[in-house]
Amino acid sequence: MSARAVAPPAAAEPLLGPTHLGLLKGFELRQGSRQIRLPLSAQRLLAFLALHDRPLQRLYVAGTLWLDSSQEAANANLRTALWRLRRPGSVLVDATPTELSLADGVVVDLRETAETAKRVLAHDGLGSDVSLLCVAGDLLPDWYDDWLIVERERFRQLRLHALESLAEDLAAGAQYAAAAEAALAAIAAEPLRESAHRALVRLHLAEGNVGEAIRQYTVYADLLRDELGLEPSPSMQSLVRSLPLAAEPRRRA
Questions:
Q1: Which residues, 6 or more positions from 231, have their beta carbon under 8 angstroms from its beta carbon?
Q2: Among the three residues 82, 107, 132, which one is the final residue of a domain in this structure?
Q3: Nearest residue to 93 via CA among 102, 80, 106, 105
Q4: 218 within some domain
Q5: What domain range includes position 56?
Q6: Considering its fold, how many domains does the chain have in total?
């Protein structure tokens, strides 16, 4: 009896296209149009490396990501996570016996948005930057790792300052619709942030919309009183004090 021919196993289909790592609003890894699903340990490793623009010592990475484990167990977890990141057609991590870093070919939305924000703060970008900054969300908002806390707040503050600066620059160039979009994005990200509301009030005044300016001031003053029992700062009050229809914010019982 002749032996039955056995077909060789099909080779894994290579993944084609640029690799994009999304960390804003949540974790997402894509290559081309295909979404790549990873276990949480591999996600955490990629995210941690993406937050640093230099190679990191393996011992430091393992000790930070698996803080409650022994060094031996942490190193074993790191090796497993690296193994899970090995994929045909792509390199996600550059690894040496002592150091790890995110591969150069991986595009990270956090890095792109942070660079855009810095360019805006240097007054080197205007209208084309509105959309990217407005749609960006918080850094991995559903993760609770200690190593994320400072990085999340650092990016949040960078984005808020950039949005406010963008709103001011666009308003100065009479691009009022785009300026309003930037100011409202800052307010949505932090409703109690007075500087964001102040930028929107100044925008309405620049357009000649006195009623809109007073309404926005009143909305903020009521929110501040309800949430914190505070009044707007003197600089905020001075924006509407001289307006003929300016009224005291309503006082709720």
A1: 221, 224, 225, 237
A2: 107
A3: 102
A4: yes
A5: 19-107
A6: 2
